[in-house]
Design brief:
Elements: H1 16-19, E1 26-30, H2 34-45, E2 49-54, E3 66-68, H3 71-79, E4 90-98, E5 104-116, H4 117-126, E6 133-135, E7 139-145, E8 148-153, E9 158-161, E10 163-166, H5 173-178, E11 185-197, H6 203-210, E12 213-216, E13 222-228, E14 241-249, H7 252-259, H8 279-292, H9 295-303, E15 308-316, E16 321-322, E17 325-327, E18 333-334, H10 342-359, H11 365-391, H12 401-409, H13 413-419
Parallel strand pairs: 1-2, 1-10, 2-6, 4-12, 10-17
Antiparallel strand pairs: 3-5, 4-5, 7-8, 8-9, 11-14, 11-15, 12-13, 13-14, 15-18, 16-17
Helix pairs in contact: 2-4, 2-10, 3-10, 6-9, 8-9, 10-11, 11-12
The structure holds flavin-adenine dinucleotide.
Residues 30-36, 53-56, 60, 64, 67-68, 138-139, 167-170, 173, 191, 193, 245, 310, 329-330, 337, 340-344, 346 line the site of flavin-adenine dinucleotide.
């Protein structure tokens, strides 16, 4: 515990007896999604005074879909206060690849636990003090002080802290202020996503793929699917869901623009909100699924009530620390989803930051932040690069010899099932 013994870097040398009376160090977190809640819980348990501010009003429930988990990530989830007895999701024992006609053409035994975004959100929220989570309040600015930082809120109010953690996602407001040169780079393809109710499956498709991590790999595309909990985190057979992610090339100037055009003709820059995706685009996607995918996956797409797509982006921030503001999770790095490392990386960031701050007990916050940066920049760069290799084959165009070589490597279905959603280590 840091608790009362914490000393700030700017504080003059103080006698030990004085130090024990110093108030808890205060952290403000921008963003109350998975990254913000994880670091909030770890810091709270390390003795910090923590407040989370989330721009969106109300629960974030219903966002996101399925997630792969990795062993280290589960360890950090438990360290953040979640009970080891709380079921996280559904175990799957193998991966299979289907051909265009639905036959299994390859398999790989591999036991993995799949969870859902909402499941993790509920678990993290339940262990964070309710009165310290403020929704509907965005942070618009950070002002550095000699001994800390001031967060400026959308309503003009201000609050001082020793540390401001930007866990505000891929389009981070704080990163835009502090490192405007770091911009999301469009990868050249989109991911269609959705959740099909288990009860909507035909018996044959259920038997064939429901308990599997299944792949369908048409030319230049990738469809994956796996079971996740159903409504209210229910993992009872019959009440679960099947999560799919289908990567398809979409050139930025033409196809992406067309997909992001709503019914009024407005083109949404970067990404279109799912409810505004035109019904004819969804109908067309279902028709393509019948032609390109194995019949099992065509059925999954057909029976998913509200399929939606997300353009895929890379984000790389060579710096994570700006005075007393620190980037974490997707505001720092976004790797394409192929390695399934988004939450695992946010958890690793949170663990590294809290460890560095805890080790500096009685020491220097600024030094701790730089230790965090030195550890997490190489990891972030590495995981983004690894995911770029995995995704090169689906890009609308391969621009470099390296991308062409990666695309060639991942034409091979066996390389794809071997390397997808496997924990990344440096
Ligand atoms: C198709 C796809 C599949 C994926 N699959 C996986 C997977 O299998 N495994 C995995 O681990 N990850 C996966 N991910 C990634 C994962 O969802 C994220 O990496 C992870 O949730 C970490 O996000 P975060 O908390 O840093 O940011 P976000 O979840 O984006 O949260 C940022 C939060 O900050 C809030 N906010 C924004 N601006 C402000 C502001 N100014 N003030 C206050 N609040 C603000 C936002 O409202 C939001 O709630 C996938 C992503 C995609 C797109």
């Amino acid at each position: 515990m840091i608790g009362a013994a914490f000393v700030y870097s700017s504080m003059p040398e103080a006698p030990r007896s004085f130090m024990t009376t110093v108030a808890k160090p205060r952290a403000i977190i921008a963003g109350g999604s998975l990254g913000g809640l994880l670091v909030g819980n770890l810091l709270h348990r390390a003795g910090w005074d923590v407040e989370i501010y989330e721009r969106v009003a109300g629960s974030l429930d219903g966002r996101g879909a399925g997630l792969v988990t990795h062993p280290e990530q589960r360890e950090i989830i438990w360290q953040s206060g979640v009970s080891r007895d709380a079921p996280l999701g559904i175990w799957v024992d193998r991966r299979i690849v289907l051909d265009r006609f639905g036959s299994v053409i390859g398999e790989l035994p591999l036991r993995q636990l799949f969870t859902g975004w909402s499941r993790l959100y509920h678990l993290f929220h339940a262990v964070f003090p309710r009165s310290r989570y403020h929704d509907g309040i965005g942070i618009v600015n950070a002002e550095q002080r000699s001994d800390g930082v001031t967060a400026v809120f959308a309503d003009g109010s201000r609050r001082d802290a020793d540390l401001l953690i930007a866990a505000d996602g891929v389009r981070s407001t704080l990163r835009a202020q502090l490192a405007p040169e770091v911009q999301p780079e469009y990868a050249g393809y989109v991911a269609w996503r959705g959740l099909a109710e288990e009860s909507a499956f035909s018996a044959a498709t259920h038997r064939s793929i429901f308990e599997e991590f299944a792949f369908s790999l048409p030319e230049r595309e990738q469809m994956i699917g796996y079971p996740v909990a159903g409504a209210r985190d229910d993992i009872t057979p019959g009440k679960r869901r099947y999560n799919f992610v289908w990567y398809r090339p979409a050139a930025e100037a033409t196809e992406l623009k067309r997909l992001c055009t709503d019914a009024t003709g407005k083109v949404h820059d970067g990404a279109i909100p799912p409810p505004l995706i035109r019904p004819e685009i969804i109908a067309e996607t279902r028709a393509v699924a019948r032609v390109n995918l194995s019949p099992q996956f065509a059925e999954v797409v057909e029976r998913t009530k509200e399929p939606f797509f997300q353009p895929i982006y890379d984000v790389r921030s060579p710096r994570l620390v700006f005075g007393r503001v620190v980037l974490l999770g997707d505001s720092a790095f976004v790797a394409r989803p192929h390695c399934g490392m988004g939450v695992a990386k946010a958890a690793g960031d949170a663990r590294a930051l809290v460890d560095a701050l805890t080790a500096s007990n009685g020491g220097d916050v600024t030094r701790a932040l730089h230790q965090y940066e030195a550890a997490r920049v190489p990891f972030g760069m590495g995981v983004v690069q690894h995911a770029r290799h995995l995704g090169a084959y689906y890009q609308a165009e391969q621009r470099t010899p390296e991308e062409r070589a990666s695309a060639e490597r991942y034409r091979d279905p066996f390389a794809v099932i071997r390397d997808t959603a496997i924990p990344f280590t440096l």
